[in-house]
Amino acid sequence: MSRTRSRVPVLIGALAALGLLLFLLPLAGLIVRAPWNQTLAELTDPTTTTALGLSIFCSLTATAIALVLGVPLAMILARTHGTLRNILRALTTLPMVLPPVVGGVALLLAFGRRGLVGSLLYQWFGIQIPFTTAAAVMAETFVAMPFLVIAVEAGLRSLDHRYEEAARSLGAGYWRVLTRVTLPLLRPAIFSGAVLCWARALGEFGATITFAGNFPGRTQTVPIAVYLALETKPEAAITLSLILLVVSVAILVGLRDRWLGV
Amino acid sequence: MTLEAAVRVRRDGFTLDVTVSVAAGETVAVLGPNGAGKTTLLRALAGLDDMEGRVTLDGEVLDDTDRGVHVPAERRHAGLVFQDHILFPHLSVLENVAFGLRARGKPHARAAARRWLDDAGLGDRAEALPRALSGGQAQRIALLRALATEPKLLLLDEPLSSLDVSIRAEVRRELTRQLASFNGVRLLVTHDPLEAMALADRLVVLERGEVVQSGKPEEVTARPRSRFVADLAGVNLLRGHAHGDHVTVAGNEALAAAGAGEGDVFAVIHPRAVALYRTRPDGTPRNVWYGHVDSVDAYGDRVRVRVVGPVPLVAEVTRAAVQELGLAAGADVWMVVKATEVSAYPA
Fold it and tell me: Going by DSSP bridges, is the β-strand pair B60-64/B69-70 parallel, antiparallel, or unpaired?
C-alpha cells in the first residue's frame, strides 16, 4: 500500500509564504542594515553598556523573584480544582495577555505615590517605588512570572506522584520529599520556565517605561534604549536589537527539545 | 508481631470492606481481578489514602477512625514496593537505597546501603542510574530500598507483573529468598495466581471490594467460591440449591451430585470429567445436557471446549476426540458428567 501526501492548494501555499515573509523580512532588514563595521564601537559605548548591564541585572533579579514566588504559586495552583483553580489561573496568567502598558498603569495605581499600597509605603516608610530600578524589576516580574508559573504547574501536573509516595513510605517528611524528590524531578520544568521568564523579562518594554520611566543607569533597559536611540542614533538601536535577537535565537535553540516542542 | 486491619474505603460507587490479619513471618497474598480494590487496600495500609476502620501493627494503632487516629505514611514503618519499582530517577542505585536510611536519621546511610547491595549481589550497580537497570534489577533494588529501612510491614503491589515473562521466574526466586529472610509482616497484592501461589503462604481472594475466600492456596483452589478462583483453578463452578443427591442450578436444571447435602452449595466439575458426544447417549442415571460449542482452544495435546447451553461448561478432551467428533464452534454436542465427579460443598 503506497501513500501519497495530499497536495496543498496553491492559495494556501501562497498565504503561508506571505505569513513567513512577515517574520523573515524584518529579520533580514535588521541583519542587512546592521552597521557591522561599527558594531564593536557601539557595543563599548557607555550608553549601550549601561543599558545592557541594567537589563541583565533587572531581568535576572526578576527571574530570581519569580522563582521564589512562582514555584510555590504553581504548587498551590496544581493542587486546586474547579472554580478556585480557574480564578487563580486567570489571575496568574492575566499579565500574559494584558497589554504591558496597561500592566504598567495598574502598577502605578497600586504602588505609585498616591496608589493603593504606594501611598501607605510613602506615609509610613517614605518609600517611593515608581521610577526606580526596583520599579523596573517589579514591572519585569509582573509581566514575566506567569511563564514560570505555567511551566512549573504543567510539570507538577504531569509528575508521577508515586515518587513522592514512595519517599513518604521510606520515612521522608514533607520538606525532605519536596527538596529531595519533588523539586529535583521538576528541574526540567523549572529550568525551561525560568529561561522563558528571563527572556520575557529581558525584552520587557511597555510596563517598564510606564511604571519605571526612562532614566539612563536606573531604569533605561535595552528595549527602552533601542526605542529612544532609533531617533538619534539608529546604529546603536540596530546593534542593541541584534543583541536581543541573538539572545532570543539562543534560547529558542537551547529549549527546542525541552519545552517548545519545535 | 501481627497486622490486624479492618479497612473500609468508599469512593464513587465502589466500597472496599476488608478485614485481614497477618502474622509475622507469614506471606499473605491478596488475590483478585483488576478493579477488586487490591491497590486501594494496600494504599490504605501504607497510610497514603484516607480510610475508615482500624489498623494495628505490632500493637501500635496506625488507624482508628473512631478515636481519630491516623499515623501518616512517613511514620508507619511500612515498606511499600510498587508495581513498576518507582526508583527515584535522579538518584543513583546507592542513593535510592540510602534514601530511607537518611530519612529515618540512621548514621552511615551510604555504607549501610552498600552492604545491602553487596549482600544481594548488586554491588556493581551501586553508581548506576535507575534508567540503566534491567526490569528485574530495578524491581530487586526497589525491594532492597524498602527492606533497608527495616520496616515492620512490607507491602508489595504486583511485584512481578511489570516484568518480562522470560525473567519473571528468576526474579520470583530471588523475591522468595528475600521475603523469607524478612521477619516482619508480609502482604502482597496481585491479580496473577501464579505469583500468589509461588510467594504466599495464605491467599485472600478479593472481589468487588469484599473478601470472598481465604486460606492456604491448595484449599482455595480445591474449593473455589467464586468465578475468579474457579477460572484460575481451571474448573467449572456452578452455584445452586442442594437437596439430597441433587443440586438445582440456574435455569432450573437438576444436577446429580453424590452426597450434595442440603441448602445453598457450590458444585465444582473438573473439565476432564465432562465427556462430549454428538448424539444423545443412552440413559443411565447421569447428568446429560445439550449445548453448542462456543470455542475450541488447544493447550498442548489437550483441548478445552467451551460449551454454551442451559448448563454452560468447559470440557477438556484430547486432540483425537476433537477430530473424531468434528468439534468446532457452533457444533451441537451432548455433555455427560458422572454424579460422582461433581463435588458439592456449602456456599
Answer: antiparallel
The answer to whether residue A50 is domain-embedded is no
**Chain A residues close to B147, C-beta within 8 Å:** none
Cell of B314: 468447559
Tell me the per-residue pLDDT of B243-285, one tens digit each, with 9 for 90 and over.
888 888 877 788 888 777 888 888 888 888 898 998 888 766 5
Q: B116: which 3 cell numbers?
A: 545491602
At residue A260, the pLDDT reads 45
- A170 chain-B contacts, CB cut-off 8 A: 74, 79, 99-100, 103-104, 145-146, 149
Asked whether residue A185 is domain-assigned, the answer is yes
H or E element, residue B293? strand B287-299
Q: Check CB contact of B255 with chain A, cutoff 8 Å.
A: no
CA A56 – CA A66 distance, rounded (Å): 15
ipTM: 0.79
Residues 6+ away with beta carbon under 8 Å from A98: A106
Q: What pLDDT digit, counting tens, does each position of A42-94 carry? A: 778 888 889 989 999 999 999 999 999 999 999 999 988 889 989 999 999 89
**Which B-chain residues 147-206 have CB contacts (< 8 A) with chain A?**
149
* Residue A100 domain flag: yes
DSSP state, B107?
S
Q: Are A165 and B73 spatial neighbours (Cβ–Cβ below 8 Å)?
A: yes
Pairs of CB atoms within 8 A across A/B: 63
B308: CB partners within 8 A, 6+ apart: B291, B292, B294
**To which H or E segment does residue B256 belong?**
strand B253-269
Query: Whole-angstrom Cα distance, residue B291 to residue B327?
Result: 12
B234-346: CATH number: 2.40.50.100
β-bridge pairing B332-337 and B342-346: unpaired
Contacts of B77 in chain A (CB under 8 A): 171
- Any domain includes A6: no
CB contact at 8 A, B148 and B103: no
Domain boundaries, chain B: 2-87+133-231, 234-346
Same topology, domains B2-87+133-231 and B234-346? Answer is: no
Protein fold of B2-87+133-231? Rossmann fold (3.40.50)
Question: What global pTM score does this model have?
Answer: 0.80
Q: Quote the number of domains for chain A.
A: 1
Q: Supply the CATH number for residue A95's domain.
A: 1.10.3720.10
> End-to-end CA distance of chain B, in Å?
33
